[in-house]
Amino acid sequence: MRKGDIELLAPAGSYDALVAAVQSGANAIYVGGKQYGARAFANNFDDETMIKAIEYCHLRNVFLYVTVNTLYTDEQFDELLDYISFLYQNGIDALIVQDMGLFHMIKKFFPDVQIHMSTQASVKNLEGVLFFEENNVDRVVLARELHISEIAHIANNSNIDLEVFVHGALCMSYSGQCLMSSMIAKRSGNRGQCGQPCRLPYELVENNHIITGPDKYLLSPQDLCSIEYVGQLIDAGVKSFKVEGRMKRPEYVYSVISAYRRAIDAYLNKQNADLKDDILNMKKMFHRGFTKGFLFQDSLTLAKSIPGHHGIYLGHIHHYQKKNKFLYIKLETSLSQNDRIYFPQNDLTRTITKLYKNGKLVNHANQNDLVAIELDSKIVLHQDVYKVIDYQLIHNIQDTLKNEQIQLPIDMVLTGQINELLKLTVRCFHYEVTVFSQGVVERALNTPTSYTRLKEQLSKLGNTLYQARSIDISFPEQGIIAIKEINQLRRNAIEQLNILRLQNKRHISQIKSDIHLNRVHHPDKLAIKVASVEMIKHLDKNGIDQIFIPFHEYTCYEKNVIPYIPFLYNEEELRSFINSPLFDKVDTIMVSDFGAYYLLKDQKKIILNSNFNISNTFALHEFNHDSVLSLEINQGEINHLQTMNNLYLTAYTQVINMNLKHCVISEHYFHKKNKHCSMCQKNHYQLKDRKGEVFDIVTDHNCNNYILNCRRIYLENIDSYHVDYVLLDFINEKPNLIEQIIRDFQTNILLNKKSQIISSLDTFRGYY
Q1: DSSP-assigned letter for residue 441
Q2: How far is CA 349 from CA 287, 329, 377, 387, in A?
Q3: Quick one: how many helices (H) and strands (E) in the chain?
Q4: pLDDT tens digits, residue range 176-209?
Q5: Is the predicted pLDDT of residue 152 greater than 50, yes or no?
Q6: In this structure, are residues 705 and 699 in contact, taking their beta carbons and an 8 Å threshold?
Q7: DSSP characters over 258-289
Q8: Does residue 516 have a pLDDT over 80?
Q9: Is 425 helix (H, G, I), strand (E, B) or coil?
Q10: For the stretch 169-179, what's the b/e string if a residue is b when 16 or more beta carbons lie within 10 angstroms of its beta carbon?
């Protein structure tokens, strides 16, 4: 993408979706391979289809980006780098990356390929963007929690392309920082296998009493739709408009991308766009209700009653005729045969095979009509009905996609002389090819080949992606040549032009991923981390090597007390801390995001928190700092790591499953995030799932929510892990429990004895 251009970036989970995206006006497409992408359950692209996709896009001047935005272990890297080599050699335009180990290897072995940092990297502030700009990254996909004013601030103070999600499904938690699916089902979102537990029903529990009503989907956001704010996004400095949807059907992709194409072009051309029909068609294809997201408001809007496709409002059930099993619906919009309708109170869908109006079978009915369908299911009669599949809309899009919509201009020059081969030169942009006929031009005995006929045959570009802008013909007046020669000449020229335009192969030298170090790590040090100093106010700190406390509570200097910056923090508070006299006394600091890391990496000794998702040796070498390891790697993977720096193993914690800018509690009471409402200070809140599992909700002083896991990680046999520090991470525990756990580790677990309290707690080993 040229600097200054606005890119419309479309999703494609299949080749058909890719075609739909290109034909509807996308400038770039992002796809995943059969492995390594964050949508493992999309159809995705095998190697053969990937090559086909690259060629299809490049012939149409569309960029193709490949997602390799999951986390990797050491043993995956040889195969992973073979895959990157395959993509690189076949001319992929950019790689979308989360893992800093892969980032390290791409910079080392593929320095001329574009790197786009995925939203999974959780970049949420200017400093995080500046870190990647400093490291020559081409683009950052910003966290979806940013407001447009924050995006504008980043754009005005950086020189890197910014990509922003503008449409589609939203995650409840910061992407890359959600362990909900991972911890309850071992389906990691960071490895592309998210089971979407956020779309399941939950009940809000206040002081052990359920307080929610019939709407149970408390973690299910509506879908983002910012088509009406395209101009504001462009003015804010957004370069790439990203649409979510690699799990969606081609017709959805076509509908959304064509709508945003019209909106973007209208704004750039200073025209007004009527978006009413576009928005309606997008709703027909898929939506959970539309929200402006954090882009244009302070909190998410939730799809609390229906977690899936809402469709459009069809009408209300009028009555049911038991005798012939006819259900009558008063229509508020049209309904056709083969449409699909949804009854939300019964979670029931039906395809319209027979539609009756005034007792007669019809193919179509209009608004205000009273229609009947056959229904032999028990159903709640007093409810609204929704149309979730519009057959005619899908059919129309499918018809449109049968024909090439892209028309690239070419210039053709045809020259010939009697007794010579006919020559055709074709130019497209800066590409030029010349081909010759098989037979020579002959002198006509009767009727010569006319200029009109030659031009007509050359213009027959059919369903190719080219359109003749100019045709210049120099042909003898008495010349004649077979029409089939002209047709073959045209076909040969187009074929050679395509071959020339696809000559973008790259070549690489041999790649080796091996790193050999000899340092042996042994877990002989104990560190604790607390959410508040109050939790350890009366704790006997003997035998604890390091104590991590929040930076905003750091008030005195002790050698083993280290401030940490949590993943979610107030940037003004952090800058105030950095500018305070206390900061000068700090030797070491723990950071949890790229922004804090960028601010502090040249000033203090850094420890990376587990939010950096360190899971391989190459990530350790990219940072070269002491690190708390990812909670999503197992013992064998940990013991394979090679580094000269200290490694921390989280041996106890009630895992933070979700980091939320949203507030579940104030949403219940105020239907929005009502900052500092103090409800969380007055009561204890939890989420209860459909299986009866209970998840604590913790709120920090900035009104961010943390959804804790229902079980605690609690490890024994620590000596078998090749790490340096055993970290006990306390988030919501009472002081007496903290004291018991620390004593248990000091007197039992670290001495290779059995825990004395683990059986009294609801624990699990996680991935360990």
Answers
A1: B
A2: 16, 15, 11, 9
A3: 21, 42
A4: 999 999 999 999 999 999 999 999 999 999 999 9
A5: yes
A6: yes
A7: HHHHHHHHHHHTT-----HHHHHHHHHH--S-
A8: no
A9: strand
A10: bbbbbbbbbbb
Mean pLDDT of 750-757: 95
E strand intervals along 247-354: 290-291, 312-321, 326-331, 335-336, 340-343, 348-351
Q: Which two tokens stand for residue 193?
A: 């296998």
- Pinpoint the alpha helices (H) of 24-95: 47-59, 77-89
- Within 556-600, strands assigned E span 561-564, 588-591
C-alpha distances in angstroms, 444 versus 417, 441, 480, 599?
12, 9, 5, 81
Per-residue pLDDT of 243-292, as tens digits, reads: 999 999 999 999 999 999 999 999 999 999 899 999 999 999 999 999 99
- Residue 211 tokens read as 């307080």
Q: Tell me, yes or no, if the pTM score tops 0.85.
A: yes
Q: How many residues does the chain have?
A: 768
Q: Is 151 exposed, middle or buried (0-12, 13-18, 19+ CB in 10 A)?
A: buried
Tell me the C-alpha distance between 250 and 12, whole Å: 8
pLDDT at 3: 44
How far apart are alpha carbons 738 and 749 in whole angstroms?
Answer: 15
pLDDT in tens, 643-675: 999 999 999 999 999 999 999 999 999 998 888
Q: How far out from the chain centre does Cα 550 lie?
A: 30
Arithmetic mean of pLDDT, 700-726: 96
Q: Which of 567, 569, 527, 568 is nearest to 548 (CA)?
A: 527
Asked if residues 326 and 372 have their Cβ atoms less than 8 Å apart, the reply is yes
- Using DSSP, state whether 429 is helix, strand or coil: coil
